[in-house]
Amino acid sequence: DTFQIWNWQCDSSFQVNKPVNCLSWCKARNHPMSLVVGTDTDVQIWELSESHVWEQRNILQDGNSVVRSVAWSSNIGKDYETIAASYSDGCIRIFQISPAGYSLTG
């Protein structure tokens, strides 16, 4: 029974090597399994490789504040992904992620 969480087993794991404050899954269907992780110093994008190993794909840095929460918006109808992050300095930063890299918007 899938609702009996005490029977669940860990499928995979990896070390970020920093305190993790938050994370959000990429929900795009045409994208490899990915998630964004917020730490005390940055926002990191991780992707599950074909060999079933989590690999860090990008680090989004802006400012020196602690990341409090992150959200990943899928790319439906767009040629880029959007990641929002809220920081301890009260700022919300929006990143556009494309194959060419990332940019801070707004």
Concise description?
The protein has 106 residues and is mainly beta. The chain has no helices and 8 strands.
Descriptive account of the structure:
With 106 residues, the protein is mainly beta. It is built from no helices and 8 strands. Strand 3 and strand 4 form a beta hairpin. The N and C termini lie far apart (46 Å). The model has no long low-confidence stretch (mean pLDDT 84).
Topology:
Blueprint: E1 20-25, E2 34-39, E3 43-48, E4 54-60, E5 67-73, E6 81-87, E7 92-98, E8 101-105
Antiparallel strand pairs: 1-2, 2-3, 3-4, 5-6, 6-7, 7-8
Q: Beta fraction of the residues? A: over 45%
Please tally the β strands and state the result: 8
Largest sheet: 4 strands, antiparallel
Spell the H/E element sequence: EEEEEEEE
Overall shape: it is globular
Question: What labels would you give this structure?
Answer:
single chain; 106 residues; mainly beta; four-stranded antiparallel sheet; 8 strands; 0% helix
